[in-house]
C-alpha cells in the first residue's frame, strides 16, 4: 500500500511538471487601439490554428507587436506578433533549427489570415516540421 501511494504521488508530480501554461501575450500599452483590437480578435484563432504554441510554450517568450500598415502595399499589410525562441529550447525539436530565433507571426488587418515567413517558426506553429517553398499561411 505504501509503495502504491508513493507511486501515485510520483506520477502526479511528474504530470504536473510536464504540463505547460498556455502561451499568453500581454499587449503593450503603446499599441494603437485599432492594432490591439485586431490582435485581441485574432489571438484565440491563432492559438487554435497553431497547436504547437501551447506544446512549446515554455520555450517561447512574447516580445511585442509590430505593424507595417502605414507603408506596405495592401497585399503585404500585417500585424506581427513577435516571439523569441529560447537559446536552448527544451521542448522544441532540434530538427526545427529554431534556437534563439525571433519568430514573426503575421496577422492580416482583417484577422482572417496568419502568415509565417520562416520554416522553423511555421514548424513551431504547426507542432510538426514544416518545409514551405514560400510563406506558410493559415486561414483564421
Structural class: alpha+beta
Helix content: 25-40%
Our Rg estimate from Cα atoms comes to: 18 Å
Number of helices: 4
| Net shape | globular
Q: What oligomeric arrangement do these chains adopt?
A: single chain
Give a description of the structure:
It is a single chain. The longest helix has 17 residues, at 2-18. The termini are far apart. The protein has helices at 2-18, 33-49, 51-55, 119-126; strands spanning 60-67, 79-85, 102-107, 113-116, 136-139. 34% of the residues lie in helices and 21% in strands. By secondary structure, it is of the alpha+beta class. It is built from 4 helices and 5 strands. It has a 5-stranded antiparallel β-sheet with strand order 1-2-3-4-5. It has one domain. Residues 1-18 have low confidence and may be disordered.
